[in-house]
Amino acid sequence: MASAFVLGDKFRDKLTELLEKTDSCLPERLREELEESLGKPEPTILSFSAARTLQKYLQDQGRPFYLHELLDGGSLHLPEVVKPPRNRELVARLERIKVRLANEEYSRITRNVNTQEISRNGTIADFGQEVRSVKAVVATVFNFLVTVVAAFACSYMGSQYLFTDTGARVIAAVITASVVGLAELYVLVRTMEGELGEP
Q1: Do 135 and 71 belong to one domain?
Q2: Minimal CB count within 10 Å: which of 23, 61, 134, 169?
Q3: Domain interval for residue 144
């Protein structure tokens, strides 16, 4: 908080003039304080109490003088604030609190991040489920092909007792394999619908 102000050139000149007058009967204490203030190198600093005493003295002498005139060309003197040294325990505690808050913030930011994630589309568990699904589809297709080929082979081998012509045997085998394939597809579609929850 300010308790003094820096004198402007105009007021400093008036003070010097007042102190040089030998007939001025300034109080001794005020004279000493003013001389001390003017004797110091610039900036000239005058306390508020000395300014009030000077104003009272001048008013008593019949010279009205106002404090706002004193500040003309001057400014408030704000003393430099000396910061006390920081307590080491307090600094260490503040550092621990900062680290804890940073960890909490990091946890809050990354709480929905999965470390198992291999891509933006899913996790390793999802990948395993997709592999199992692909394996099931591959097994179903392989089973379908084996069934159709087996039906064709059985029909071709079995039709040799009915037909002697190879063309007739192939046609009979293709018809049998087609019927077995369509039946297999029907069962597969019904099974898929059942898995999806449809009637």
Answers
A1: no
A2: 23
A3: 129-195
Domain count, the chain: 2
* Most confidently predicted of 36-40, 112-116, 147-151: 147-151
- What the block records as the tokens of 106 is 């990091």
Instruction: Answer whether 117's CB lies under 8 Å from 149's CB.
Output: no
- Of residues 134 and 73, more confidence is placed in 134
pLDDT of residue 199: 47
Q: What digits encode the pLDDT tens for the residues 145-165?
A: 999 999 999 999 998 888 889
Q: Which helix (H) or strand (E) holds 76?
A: strand 75-77
Please, which residues have CB within 8 angstroms of residue 44's CB and are 6 or more apart in sequence? 6, 7, 12, 37, 38
* Token reading at 165: 């012509």
Stated as kind and residue range, the H or E segment containing 5 is strand 4-6
In a domain, 98, yes or no: no
Pairing of strands 122-123, 117-119: antiparallel
**In terms of domains, do 9 and 73 share one?**
yes
Tokens (6 digits) for 47: 């306390």
Q: Domain for residue 86, yes or no?
A: no
